[in-house]
Amino acid sequence: MTSTVPNAVQHADERQPPITMFGPDFPYAYDDFLAHPAGLGQIPATGHGTEVAVIGGGLSGIVAAYELMKMGLKPVVYEADQIGGRLRTVGFDGCDPSLTAEMGAMRFPPSSTALQHYIDLVGLETRPFPNPLAEATPSTVVDLKGESHYATTVDDLPQVYRDVMHAWNACLEEGADFSDMNRAMRERDVPRIREIWSKLVEKLDNQTFYGFLCDSESFKSFRHREIFGQVGFGTGGWDTDFPNSILEILRVVYTEADDHHRGIVGGSQQLPLRLWDREPQKIVHWPHGTSLASLHVGGEPRPAVTRLHRTAGNGITVTDANGDIRTYQAAIFTAQSWMLLSKIACDDSLFPIDHWTAIERTHYMESSKLFVPVDRPFWLDKDEETGRDVMSMTLTDRMTRGTYLLDDGPDKPAVICLSYTWCDDSLKWLPLSANERMEVMLKSLGEIYPKVDIRKHVIGNPVTVSWENEPYFMGAFKANLPGHYRYQRRLFTHFMQDRLPADKRGVFLAGDDISWTAGWAEGAVQTALNAVWGVMHQLGGATDPTNPGPGDVYDEIAPVELPED
Length: 565
Description:
Elements: H1 30-35, E1 51-55, H2 59-70, E2 74-78, E3 89-90, E4 101-102, H3 113-121, E5 126-128, E6 140-144, E7 147-151, H4 159-176, H5 178-186, H6 190-204, H7 209-214, H8 222-231, H9 246-254, E8 262-264, H10 270-277, E9 305-311, E10 315-320, E11 325-328, E12 331-333, H11 339-342, E13 345-346, H12 353-361, E14 364-365, E15 367-374, E16 393-396, E17 402-406, E18 414-422, H13 423-427, H14 434-448, E19 463-466, E20 477-478, H15 485-492, E21 507-509, H16 521-538, H17 554-557
Parallel strand pairs: 1-2, 1-12, 6-16, 9-13, 12-21
Antiparallel strand pairs: 3-4, 5-8, 6-7, 9-10, 10-11, 14-20, 15-18, 15-19, 16-17, 17-18
């Protein structure tokens, strides 16, 4: 189990195929698409060397650029800050460079199979991430209302926690056909997935996560709902998601996105950085030894985009921070969509008006983290009186909310994520400096662990982030509010541009906020592949008949369409 309240169903038949982020909105096998020997497609030789703008050097942008390059196109990547986006790994000044902090994405589920393709491609290693009560976590402390409970398994916790776990399982069965959907997704039974999901979308689009709980007979008890909000499932408390659409939560539990997480050894930012430098063996048009870095002057992306507008012949004209102006036949925009409203001067003609409305309505979650380097994993020391670990992975209703303990062996320096918070809990930290945040966190943890002097083990300055305050992000990740399904559908399906007027084509949206599974790197990869298919199609290319792309099968698996009236 990975949590005090794990995802519901345990499968007796372990021979079933593993779950993937296969739908439910768009049940397309991106992992099969990537693994097929025919590749992702090709463009006519007359189009080889054509420049395509890729705006944003996060994972989605780098994946898209990498695959376009392999087809013989010339991606021109624009990046305002640094390659990686919210795959941001930082070190600690004056400390061993092996000590790192994951300021953004830090844990990835095995169901992220398209993401795993690229992790394997660049030779990165993963290992289990120490979530609450995960097998890789030596111990967990749940501290609510001033009362702490130490556990190595869920059975060590008071009965009320198991009651909450059972209530969540029953709630999913009663209200969301969990077992049936889970089975259909494992078997990649597209008709059954679509049958179940279409009914749920129509029924639940206007429902909040909290309202879904309240409607369940299993969660009649406010105490159970309160505990569930503070302790949650998978990675911990989910009460900050209570106002969001229940459809967002169902996507997480159906795909097991919050289960069995793994971290990338050495840091997640290595993935886009290695793709940037990678020289693919199978490449069209370009000589062997070509990489994204080699296609860019000085091996660096172009600077921030300051203006996007349309010019004659349906060209996409890009102005960057250096004042350089270039026009492209196609562009992929992978940055946070709010950038189109604030940081970049845009023509209204870039997108249809209903797509602009969807961009404006996108709801982003706030998120903050703070890490400190320590001399060793002292939390594995044993308390002489109790025999327990002196400190544990901690879930609490105090300001810190979630504290994670990260080490690379008993005799090596280690890292503590003193606090990881979202939404209102994140906003509470916003006015405070890194050191001020650390002081409040140490005080809170000192009340939970009065015998432990964390401060004496700290060997360097804290590092922190509040993604809502990052100028090129303005939030951590998208989370739809009730009634937002139609908006998300417009953004996700934007890559199918044959349906658009000619003067609205050419710019393709990608990134995890365009996906159905925002906040997960898998969504960034999937939408990048959609955009690659869209660019290829626009430039007269096609996939191999034995490996149809997402656009080729779109009509068979298109997301549910709700009435607009």
